[in-house]
Design goal:
binds CIS-heme D hydroxychlorin gamma-spirolactone 17R, 18S; disordered N terminus; 4 domains; Hemocyanin, N-terminal domain; 19 helices; 26% helix; heme binding; Cytochrome C Oxidase, Chain J; Catalase; oxidoreductase; alpha/beta; Catalase HpII,  Chain A, domain 1; metal-binding; iron
């Protein structure tokens, strides 16, 4: 395959003259001599570019190394072989210490509401302003090759390529974080990653060291409750909220600052897996989320999020029982509404996983004129860490020149040289001030006192005393229990049951009894009833005493916005219907289902026992998109089973078909069933409810794509 180092077309920072695609097309067909054994050595293709070494030498044979005789040793002289293997040996770079596993997409961001009163950032001066974006969604704990659906927080990092430079909003899918101070980050990460001596578990928080840390650091509990909730197992990256978490600042043209928090609201609504499903998906499809995002974009079903801000009045903030600089606290939307200011549409898949996903470098320090940071001690630490880690991961201070990281606006300064420098600056002006322009030479760029980035001067706007030099946490950061309590009390019943179930699951994997007890002691400070249920699930006969608390929990009003089920968008759009088709299935019913799904903006996949497809009632053969044994009902939001007599006999004796029905039932999905399908479900031990419909009721089935039969769960998996 021809190698090209073509930079992104729109990237002005990329070196000219490196456009390798078809720069050396072959005019004639490869005329390849046959080897001594008489076999054809190489395919010919006269439309392809000519294969060369990295230095441009045309290659005549990319299949055979240079040998001393056909059966002799390989020669060191073989520059083609040496270069090929040398490059291959160094293909991998260190993976990210956290967020190693990620999926990416390109898109655009369009401003829906200008906010010049809040910021002088050029992007937000006019409704309709648009810029390119690049997004990376990630899990936190697992390695780059780990699975997509563990219980974990998800990263939600967005790079905006604006006319004033790159703005990176590097957030997560929860509005809060585990710790309050950057000083604790290495400890947190060490505790959750696989344990140091045994090298497991991979991509899982259900082990001793994580829960040990949690039990000793009550500030983690709020984010832990979110991770144990359905937010920790999203159904799709497309159905996730995103949050900038920290309080940031916007600065307007008059220099007036406002405190803000950022929110991404998915247009498709929020939706999660259920735990059993997420665990089984890890076997069924490692790449469940990556594939889902890729396929949706390929199909033109572009996921969209609205960007919102909460603008926080410092006087209001001073009256709250928490500190807005504390990243373990959220600001309820009911109290400070989220104003929508723009929409992000993801409309292009990456061209190359390494060049874009592995090499993208997000920096929370990438902000625009008209933006600034707050003194959140977690954010302050991040401002150092990301720049620092890129040097270790990407190997050079020039990582900003890599096409995916390069700004799409002019970039000039006097920083020079370094490893992998790709720019060739002209002239001798590599210092400032200089007067070379006066002598007719290139003088280089100059600072823009008016339009350039300026830090805010009112650093004590929230009442800090900057004259003290201390290693102390503010008293206003001391309440670790009220917000997790508020979170639990904002959930619907099934959601709260899931948190209890998740805590029981995770703590059952903790082998040291004292750690289980210490977590229970912390839980009692959040909610005694939940603590009792978890203790019951663990078979613990006596609840330990509550842990000593610096501040006791107070009852904050519940925030319904925190519940997924209380405000989900129950629309079939973007969801996936699976139709298991047996021979003799009603052709009209299948067509109706496909049409109905498409009309509703959902996708639809045909499954049959053989990939060649099934023969329908009208004699036609419907090719399958998935073979039954490799396409479990796990990957769908709702399923239909439809077959004629011929297919029924084969399906009813096929364990994969029985499991297809049984798992759809157990995962609370809607099932559209023909009479044979109903017998299949009966044999697989399912039952009947308003989510088991007739296979001809296409409207009914599709309408239930975004929903689950929560009533089934009580019988199937009663919560402790
Ligand atoms: Fe990160 N984090 N983080 N983090 N983080 C990284 O940077 C760090 C934190 C987040 O897709 C690293 O480029 C510290 C909060 C995302 O490439 C590293 C602290 C939030 C990503 C790093 C935090 C995040 C990272 C590893 C505590 C949500 C993936 C690789 C002060 C607001 C970015 C890299 C991507 C990645 C450090 C806490 C989100 C080591 C020190 C809070 C989405 O620099």
């Amino acid at each position: 395959m021809a190698q090209s180092n073509t930079p992104a077309k729109t990237n002005p920072a990329s070196a000219p003259g490196h456009d390798g695609t078809n720069s050396n097309p072959i005019s004639a067909t490869f005329t390849q001599e046959t080897g001594n054994g008489g076999e054809i050595q190489q395919m010919t293709d006269d439309t392809a570019a000519r294969l060369t070494t990295n230095h441009g030498l045309p290659i005549s044979d990319n299949q055979n190394s240079l040998r001393a005789g056909t059966r002799g040793p390989t020669l060191l002289e073989d520059l083609v072989l040496r270069e090929k293997i040398f490059h291959f040996d160094h293909e991998r770079i260190p993976e990210r210490i956290v967020h190693a596993r990620g999926s990416v997409a390109h898109g655009t961001f369009t401003v829906s509401k200008a906010i010049p009163e809040l910021t002088r950032a050029a992007l937000f001066q006019k409704k309709g302003n648009i810029c390119d974006v690049f997004v990376r969604f990630s899990t936190v704990a697992g390695g780059a090759g780990s699975v997509d659906t563990p219980r974990d927080i998800r990263g939600f990092a967005v790079k905006f390529y604006t006319e004033e430079g790159n703005w990176d909003l590097v957030g997560n899918n929860t509005p809060i974080f585990f710790i309050q101070d950057a000083m604790k980050f290495p400890d947190l990460v060490h505790s959750v990653k696989m344990e140091a001596d045994r090298g497991y578990p991979q991509a899982a928080s259900a082990h001793d060291t994580f829960w040990d840390f949690v039990s000793l650091m009550p500030e983690t509990l709020h984010n832990v409750m979110w991770a144990m909730s359905d937010r920790g197992i999203p159904r799709s990256l497309r159905f996730m909220e995103g949050f900038g978490i920290h309080t940031f600042r916007l600065i307007n043209a008059e220099g007036k600052g406002s405190f803000v928090r950022y929110h991404w609201k998915p247009r498709l609504g929020i939706q999660s897996l259920i735990w059993d499903e997420s665990a089984k998906l890890q076997g069924a499809d490692n790449d469940f989320h990556r594939r889902d995002l890729y396929e949706a974009i390929e199909a033109g079903s572009y996921p969209e999020w609205d960007l919102g801000i909460q603008v926080i009045d410092p006087e209001w903030a001073a009256r709250q029982p928490y500190d807005i600089l504390d990243a373990t606290k959220l600001i309820p939307e009911e109290e400070v509404p989220v104003q929508l200011i723009g929409t992000m549409t993801l409309n292009r898949n990456p061209d190359n996983h390494f060049a874009e996903n592995d090499q993208v470098a997000f920096l929370p320090s990438n902000i625009l004129p008209g933006m600034d940071f707050s003194a959140d001690p977690l954010l302050q630490g991040r401002l150092f860490s990301y720049l620092d880690t890129q040097k270790s991961r990407l190997g050079t201070t020039n990582f900003h020149q890599i096409p995916i990281n390069a700004p799409r606006c002019p970039m000039h300064n006097f920083q020079r040289d370094g490893m992998m420098q790709t720019q060739i600056p002209k002239g001798r002006a590599n210092y400032e001030p200089n007067s070379l322009a006066k002598a007719g030479e290139i003088g280089g760029p100059r600072a823009d006192a008016k339009g350039g980035f300026r830090s805010t001067t009112d650093s004590d706007a929230l009442g800090n005393d900057p004259t003290q030099k201390v290693r102390l946490r503010s008293e206003t950061f001391a309440d670790h229990y009220s917000q997790p309590r508020m979170f639990l009390r904002s959930l619907s019943k099934p959601e709260l049951d899931h948190v209890v179930g998740a805590l029981v699951f995770e703590l059952s994997k903790v082998s040291i009894k004292a750690i289980r007890e210490a977590v229970l002691a912390q839980l009692r400070n959040i909610d005694d009833e939940v603590a009792k249920r978890v203790a019951n699930g663990l078979g613990m006969d006596k609840l330990p005493d509550a842990a000593p608390a610096a501040r006791k929990a107070v009852d904050l009003p519940p925030s319904p916005a925190l519940s997924i089920l209380k405000h989900k968008a129950p629309a079939p759009k973007g969801r996936k219907l699976g139709i298991l088709v047996g021979d003799g299935a009603d052709a009209a019913a299948v067509k109706k289902l496909q049409d109905e799904a498409r009309t509703a903006g959902a996708s639809c996949m045909i499954i049959s026992q053989k990939i060649g497809g099934a023969k329908l009632s009208d004699g036609s053969v419907l090719p399958a998109d998935g073979q039954l044994a490799g396409t479990p009902s796990l990957i769908f939001d709702a399923v239909v089973i439809t077959t004629g007599k011929e297919g029924y006999d084969a399906l009813i004796n096929d364990p994969a078909a029985l499991e297809f029905a049984a798992l759809a039932w157990s995962h609370l999905k809607a099932l559209g069933l023909c009479p044979g399908g109903r017998k299949l479900l009966d044999k697989a031990n399912g039952g009947q409810d308003e989510f088991t419909l007739d296979h001809k009721d296409a409207k009914g089935v599709v309408a239930k794509l975004a929903d689950r039969a929560w009533d089934r769960e009580e019988d199937l998996r009663p919560a402790p």
